[in-house]
Amino acid sequence: MMSTTAVTDLKRQGFRQWLSLVYFTLKNAYFGWTFFLPSFVLIMAQMFTAAAIYYLMGRLVDPGAASDVASYHMGYGTYIVTGVMFNLILSTTLSAYHQAWLSGYWATQFDTYLQHPGGVTAYLAGSVLFDYLISLISTVIYVIVGIGLFGITIDVPNLPVVLVILVLGIFSLTGLGLLGASTFSLLNAKQQGQNPVDWLVGFGVALLAGVYFPPAVLPNWLQHVGRWLPQTHAIRAARLALNGQSGLTAHGMRDDLLYLVVFGAVTLPIGMLAFAAGLRRAQRQGTLTRWS
Amino acid sequence: MAVNAATPDPERFAVEVYGVRKRFISREGLPLGWGFGDAHWIISSLIKYRQERQWKNAVDGVDLTVRRGELLGLLGPNGAGKTTFLRCLATLLRLDEGSAFVNGYDVVRQPDEVKLSMNLIGSGQWSAFDWGLTVRQNLHFFGTLYGIAKAERNRRIDETLEWLGLTGRAKDKPPTLSAGERQKMLLAKAFMVRTPVFFLDEPTVGLDPDGAHQVREFITRELIGSGTSGILTTHRMDEAEDLCARVAIMDHGRVVAIGTPLELKKTVGERSILEIRARRVPRDALQTLRTLPGIRTAVVAPAGEEGLEESVRLHCEDLNGTAGRVADSLASAGIAVSSIETTQPTLEDVFIALTNKRIAQ
Amino acid sequence: MSIDQTAIRPLTGRQQQAAVWVFIKRDLSLLTRFKVSYLTSLMGTVQQLVIYAMIARFGLSLSVAHGLTGGYVDFVLTGLALNTLLTAALTGPYLGLIESFWSNRIEILLASPLRLPGFVIGLSVGKLVDAVIQVAVILLGGWLFFDFVWPDGGNALVFLAVLIPALAAVIGLGLAAAGMVYLLDARGGQDPVQFAVQTISSLVAGVYFPIQVLPAAVQWLCYLVPQTYAIDGMRRALFGAHALAPPPLISHLPGSPLLIDVLVLLAYAAAALPLGWLVFRNGMERARADGRLSRWL
Amino acid sequence: MNVVETENLTKIYRGNQPDDGRSWGDALVDLAKRAWRRPEEKAVVDGVSVDVRAGELFGIVGSNGAGKTTFLKLLSCLVYPDHGQAVVNGYDLVRQRSAVRRSVVIAKAGGWMSCLWQLSGRENLLFRARMCGLSGKEAARRADYVLERLELEHQAGGHSWSWSAGELQRFSLGLCFIARTPLVMLDEPTSHLDPHVARLIREFIREDLSREGGQTVMMSTHYLEEADQLCDRVAIFFKGRVLACDSPSVLRARYAADSIPELWVSGYRASLGEQIRKSLGLAEWIEHFEDVASGRARLRPKWGGHPEPDRLRSALEAQCVTVLEVRDVEPTLDDVYFRLCREKVT
């Protein structure tokens, strides 16, 4: 016979249990990802196809014409390939928060987690963390293949500098990522890959931040617009640091990093506020969990 | 299988089914309903299916006919193969064995004619409507697929919407409709094209009593009333009794009984149900009752309100002496019984008697 | 009101055609209903256009394309435009099928009198219409902002002689890809046929750069896909006979390279279209047999 | 002691609800339109004041869109109310949301939403138990009990995608049981299910959740006979309001006639119904065929204000329908429901 008394007041659940929820989410995400493993392989293959297109196109460039590229001490093909790589790492931040919310909603994961006071945040934290892990793995594969095929050269002693730049880049974009996630409920961005902030910023970055071509080719006013994007600074700095062009203390580098810090410090509170507002709105409307 | 099975008789029968079988590979352990993996085929086709291939008979030798102007009720537990059977008839599944005719056309050899002759209204199929288009535009879309000319289409849409009381919602989009209105929209789509045969798969599921009543009324008046024929599956016994002249009960892919509700009740036996009324019959007492000799099964309808009595229906093999044994058993368990009497079987009793094997397993 | 019991007439060809039109109408009305979403999705095309045009401005030395008046812009925008169209033809049947699979429309469509060809045309035609709009954006944007010059020497008839067999060949491959949805359970957005053709065509068919740029070891791959001949033939039809160096193998053959392109495309189409249809029909039949046609088993 | 007390609880939806199909671009257009013109407001739950007593099985019936589900969502903090107050398990619905959420569990119609697809059936039960603060041993014990009691042992290791409708619903009930929260809310627990499973579930709700578990259960349903039989008290919802709330027997006594005439006829056809009803000025009746072929049927007006049996008889005989018998039967909750709703409409 079962115990017949219902629990009238549940035990207070603390931070340790929150952490165990995050761990659970990671474990579940890993289980789900094993279903995606073949698709991950294909996505990697497609990524290299794209990189190869740009790399081969670089062979058409007159070495003399691309003086801006030459200042990085790399060929145009390698210039694009590194740009695409850094953009890939940075753009994870823009999409991960929204993506986590999306999967919590569509795969109806939030339902169970709502039982716990910190459940939703634990779920989001776990999912985002897993996204970063996958992004890290992709990057490592990309670099290894890149060294062999696309002429990427790495100055090993300068590697910590590259990492610092990327971490700062991720930090500076976190606010925008949270803002993007909040559009899930604030702007009804419930479709896969439909995050207006990501879309807008991604569009700007592709054209203005020096991923595919140096911003110097652009008209002057567009170059000014491009300088507002943190990616412009992060990608430039990371490129310079990657093959040992510039250390942390170099003059240009310092300005870039300072911009990243300032941008992050300004947007992070905005993003957090928007995120909280989004969560609140979703709960008020009852759209945090999918009903039908 | 009858010798003349291969020659259909469309004058008398709307649907004829002879010895139809359909088996599937069961794919346990694979998420069928999900969009996992861009290239899920690598795992699934190379490793998993090979390992876990097991055949399962979903439809296992079904013979039945639906007369012209008749609505046949098809009852059965979840997973008995009702929907699979209807999909076979709708040419959405290929038969493994046997032959089936809809409106006199062979399901295997004349699929185009069959598709023009019938309409499948599945539960939850309203999600097939375009959510960006209005109800009217959606109906126009399907009307065109059935080759109805524009003027005729307009006339029929107006007519059908009015019958179903949807005229006011013609310009609205499906997401704004209520569950009842969505179901009606499906009926409108089916009725607009006016095929002589209908397959209705749980048409009133999820509808409130009012909406269910309206849908039932529409089915009797406009579909059956106009001389169309068809098959209706449902989990509601009263619905099958009200709408259908004959009822077939399916279990494990087979038709275990077919006939008018009256005939079916006779097969169970006029006096084989023993109804006990008591304040409360605990679960262990019920378990004891089930093991008594001469008793097939016992089902309980738990009562809610204080003072209301629970009713336990016992399906008996024969009544001689059973009542006494039951009374003894209850008395020894200390249960105060207010009455024990034999009652007429209901359709639900028939259903439980015929499909009970699964629970016993 | 009575219903005629037995007089069932199969749909006439005209009625089947009307069914295809109603699919186009539906796609267009969905497109105008969700204007903003459509415009945002079109921005992806704009982004591509700008990236390649800016790279072109960057000083590419296109020695193999000396006949092109505008240099690399002409080269890449024509390639991009045609590739967009051909990719839509390749992925159209596949995407249409899985879309109707996941949205549960497939049952209601296949239980309607619409026959299988009408079904697959209806599902994929919207993607082609969409691609035509994208091509217009690429060409118009290129002309307005990036000095893309529509060649006046182009012969429209010759161009069509290339385009039509090319589309037929690619649609054949697309049908085979759609068949894989059920033959290999490739319902998740990518299948082997599509993946292989797309990878080869984007890398080695001469869309973004001449084939000669490639390492010799992988150049032979380009002969496998119809896109190579289509893109070469189209550039040849538009920019005149001496515009470009043809793919290496073709330049060794006697006769006009344009003629060879057209002939190869015709042969390709004659083989791929029936074969693709066979694979597609086979896939659908397999699904009917083992009950995987729709999401809810 | 009351587990739920609501006072004037109201939820208002403004304009069209954001749906899954629309993208953010078009939501922007909508936003612009809203700034231009105020969208119309619709109270989905409109000033509901109900008390639910501890240990009670409380039924909620009403038409589609009457606000049943929204009311349950309000009480489990999945939606926030616009006006009014409520106390759930002693916590304030507005001010102590996370405490309310922790003390309540809700199972959606259909059932599959409440399971994590990555976990097997048993793991799902354990996960929910751990999240609600049960010890590992206790969680395992209860999980085993649920699996056995609901006849789910064969699916303990299976994942939610391979379950049938009945199994999903049973698992979702199991999750409610294992959570051991004082209040359980079930949204249409028996729709889509065959009589076997429906019976099993009803028995589980009554016996395990309500009686032995001591959990208070609120369930919405479309099957009035189910509510009539199973529930201690029933609330009838109509357009966001509660028309009546009491035990079924009291409702019957108060709102339905003492007895309702039921006619047994022969030679009746469904197509005749409308004509006869019109000639009598009768809104609706329920027809129940014993045998369609011979036209033997049972007719029963749906709500009070039935005409005299003599008038009924003559109207039927005018259409060549023979009346075999007129019986007086006891009213059911159906009669109460239709009467209340009709009165509100007219």
Walk me through the topology.
The complex is a heterotetramer of chains A (292), B (361), C (297) and D (346).
Chain A: H1 15-57, H2 67-70, H3 76-106, H4 110-113, H5 119-149, H6 159-186, H7 196-208, H8 220-227, H9 230-242, H10 251-285
Helix pairs in contact in A: 1-3, 1-5, 3-5, 3-6, 3-7, 3-9, 6-9, 6-10, 7-8, 9-10
Chain C: H1 13-33, H2 35-57, H3 72-102, H4 105-110, H5 116-145, H6 156-183, H7 192-204, H8 216-219, H9 226-239, H10 248-252, H11 257-290
Helix pairs in contact in C: 1-5, 2-3, 2-5, 3-5, 3-6, 3-7, 3-9, 6-7, 6-9, 6-11, 9-11
Chain D: E1 2-14, H1 24-36, E2 41-48, E3 51-53, E4 57-62, H2 68-75, E5 83-88, E6 91-92, H3 97-102, E7 104-107, H4 121-131, H5 136-149, H6 165-179, E8 183-187, H7 195-212, E9 216-221, H8 224-230, E10 233-238, E11 241-246, H9 248-255, E12 260-266, H10 273-280, E13 285-291, E14 296-301, H11 309-318, E15 322-329, H12 333-345
Parallel strand pairs in D: 4-9, 4-10, 7-8, 8-9
Antiparallel strand pairs in D: 1-2, 1-3, 1-5, 5-6, 10-11, 12-14, 12-15, 13-14
Helix pairs in contact in D: 4-5, 4-6, 5-6, 6-7, 9-12
Description:
The complex is a heterotetramer of chains A (about 290), B (about 350), C (about 300) and D (about 350). Chain A has about 290 residues and is mainly α. Chain A is built from ten helices and no strands. Chain B is of the alpha/beta class and about 350 residues long. Chain B has two domains: about 15-265, P-loop containing nucleotide triphosphate hydrolases (Rossmann fold, 3-Layer(aba) Sandwich); about 270-345, MTH889-like domain (Alpha-Beta Plaits), CATH 3.30.70.1340. Chain B has helices at about 40-50, 80-90, 110-115, 135-145, 150-165, 180-195, 210-225, 235-245, 260-270, 285-290, 320-330, 345-355, 355-360; strands at about 15-25, 55-65, 70-75, 95-100, 105, 120, 195-200, 230-235, 245-250, 255-260, 275-280, 295-300, 310-315, 335-345. A six-stranded mixed sheet of chain B has the order 6-7-8-3-9-10, with helices on both faces. In chain B, β9 and β10 (about 255-260) form a beta hairpin. In chain B, about 50% of the residues are buried. In chain C, α3 packs antiparallel against α7, α6 (about 155-185) packs antiparallel against α9 and α6 runs parallel beside α11. In chain C, about 50% of the residues are buried. Chain C has helices at about 15-35, 35-55, 70-100, 105-110, 115-145, 155-185, 190-205, 215-220, 225-240, 250, 255-290. The longest helix of chain C has about 35 residues, at about 255-290. The chains are: A mainly alpha (about 290), B alpha/beta (about 350), C mainly alpha (about 300), D alpha/beta (about 350). Chains B and D meet through α7, α8, β12 and α12 of B and β4, α7, α8, β13 and α12 of D.
